[in-house]
Amino acid sequence: MSAEGRGAAERAIRAGALAAAALCLLPMAAVVAAALMGSTETLAHLADTVLLRYTSATLLLAALVALGTAALGTGAAWLVTMTRFPGVRAFEVALALPFAFPAYVLAYAYTDLLDHPGAVQSALRAVTGWGPRDYWFPEVRSLGGAAVMLILVLYPYVYLLARAAFLQQSATANLAARALGQSAWGAFRRVSLPMARPAIAGGVLLAVMETIADFGTVKYFGVQTLATGIYTSWFSMSDRAAAAQLALCLLGFALFLALLERIQRGAARHHGAGKRFERAPAVELRGWHRWGAVVLCAVPVVLGFLLPLGLLLEMGIGSGQNLFDDRYLGFIRNTVTLAGIAAVLTVGAAVLVAFFQRLAPGRLSGAAANVARIGYAVPGGVIAVGLLVPFAAFDNAVDAFMEARFGIDTGLIFTGSIWLLVGAYMVRFIAAALNTYDGGLVTIHPNTDAVARTLGLGPGAMLARVHLPILRPSVLTALLIVFVDVTKELPATLIMRPFNFDTLAVQAYRLASDERLSGAAVPSLVIVAVGLLPVILVCRNLGRQGSDVPRATPAPVAEMVEDPPGA
Predict the structure, then answer these.
(1) What is the dihedral sign for C-alpha 444, 447, 453, 459?
(2) What three-state secondary structure class fits 285?
């Protein structure tokens, strides 16, 4: 390939990568600009009325989810990785299955079960003869209820990352702790847990980011957070300035969490153990400890997957909804169209950003990659406001110009089509695609690129004929993850979807908002079925990673109690 052609290809790749990064940066810059242009009266009114309530609810919900996911995810990961008890192999996969549920779908299922007319309270009144005011029952539609729903679907973040960290721990430190008199519990507390702390912290921060971005669960449960405040200000009050200023508050919180995640990941260090690396030996539990481990692992699986799945199936069968009528086929078609287009464009942008960083490592390519990765920390409602503000102004300006000059009504070119919504999906989920693709890209030795250049391949040909064929599994995984994420996404879709263009997530939310929970079960089941695909894929890859590393000599039968000194 000629030098001129190679230079043109490099410029095209750089332009594509920088355009993707600019799109990721646009909503954040637009939110800041719109918030600063809003009147101080609006900001003062927010501070006097709702800002403190929104902020305190958001912080309390995030704290509860952080504590719950850390305890549940870490405990489950350690049990299935470092101990042996009946059913442990099944629990390795089953504990990740709640990840397939969006939190708002879990909320619909448990509301049908636990609300006043639900099966549990109805049975309680029938057995005791109590009236509605004769007893107290926990209110599922509350901040505590929202926290439980989010914990049940987000603890797999901590579980998967903590399990991967435990799998990578060598037997040396663990055996040394046991030789110094520590029991299995003591070795976990003083050795395994500190070594896995960066992974656990990363999982907790991801769960907290998802919590502050959640809209469907908190809206349905009537919990007033910053996410619901943005939607209320934009649609119910038609106050764009208030929505932008609330979005700026949420953006600042999200970026702070993203900074924490980057700091703790940067501080983590991993030192390979060489060819003699062996996994820590598993402890064979016995007595009541083994059945206690079974119960501890079974509870989140039952509450987070099996029970809500059964409830949704029962509700869906008796709902009278036909998944194959023209209306539902339209919802499915809209969902697949949005998810398919967004997945292809998002993964394509991620490939360009990653390849640009590989092709021309430096500050510019590094900044483009870092900006693209920020998107995962920005809630969908913030992205929606950040894109609608500038593009709505652009649409109105073009329409006014064309009407005045040519008498042509152009309508809403961007905000009235699906393309701006696809752009929001790209901003939100390009980080997931980029991380997945990067995971495969690091396995390609730099010498491979040098050989390709020696054979006359330019950058475009090297990407198409060398990298993409080798990284086909990573690309397919990234496509699948983005497809599923778009299928479940709710806040940006609610705010930005074109008129009469509803998806399965929007239909489920609308039916649940009208208290038609049985009808909401049908689209919810389809969303869950699609969400199972990446969960199974991730568990399969993680299990393969664990099986590739031999264990040290199996530990003797032991109980989870402190050994006496000198044992």
Answers:
(1) positive
(2) coil
- Would you give the end-to-end CA distance of the chain in angstroms? 71
Structure tokens at 195: 């070594």
Task: Of 487, 387, 475, give the one whose Cα is nearest residue 432.
Answer: 475
The two beta strands, 283-284 and 83-84, are parallel
Q: How confident is the model at residue 280 (pLDDT cuts 50, 70, 90)?
A: low
Look at residues 116, 79, 73, 114 and name the one whose alpha carbon lies nearest to residue 96.
73
Determine phi and psi for 279, rounding to 5 degrees.
Answer: -70, 155
Per the structure block, which two tokens stand in for 410? Answer: 């152009």
Query: The domain 50-317+528-567 is classified under which CATH number: 1.10.579.10, 1.10.3720.10, 3.20.20.120, 2.60.40.3090?
Result: 1.10.3720.10
Cα 416 to its chain centre, rounded Å, is 27
Burial bucket for residue 89 (CB in 10 Å: 0-12, 13-18, 19+):
exposed
Q: What percent of the chain has pLDDT over 70?
A: 87
> pLDDT category, 265, cuts 50, 70, 90?
low
Which residue is associated with the tokens 């940006």?
A: 492
How far is the C-alpha of 398 from the C-alpha of 402, rounded, in Å? 6
Enumerate the domain spans of the chain.
1-37+319-514, 50-317+528-567
Q: What is the CATH class of 1-37+319-514?
A: mainly alpha
Helix or strand run (H / E) with residue 284: strand 283-284
The rounded distance, in Å, linking the Cα atoms of 273 and 275 is: 7
Of the candidate ranges 54-63, 393-402, 433-442, the one whose mean pLDDT is the lowest: 433-442
Q: Give percent helix, percent strand, percent coil of the chain, each to the nearest 5.
A: 75, 0, 20
> Encoding tokens for residue 63?
């704290």
Structure-block tokens of residue 436: 């997945």
Residue type, 514: D
Closest CA to 210 of 24, 378, 432, 67: 378
Mean pLDDT computed over 263-279: 51
Cβ proximity of 103 and 153 under 8 Å = yes
State the burial class of residue 419 (Cβ atoms within 10 Å of its Cβ: 0-12, 13-18, 19+): middle
pLDDT digits (tens, 9 = 90+) for 181-209: 766 667 777 777 777 787 888 888 888 98
Instruction: List the structure tokens of 411.
Output: 């309508």
- HSE-up of residue 244 (Cα within 13 Å, Cβ side): 23
Mean pLDDT of 372-399: 84
Q: Tell me how far apart the alpha carbons of residues 534 and 478 are, in angstroms, rounded to a whole number.
A: 9
Q: How far apart are CA 25 and CA 366, in angstroms?
A: 14
Residue 273's pLDDT band (cuts 50, 70, 90): very low
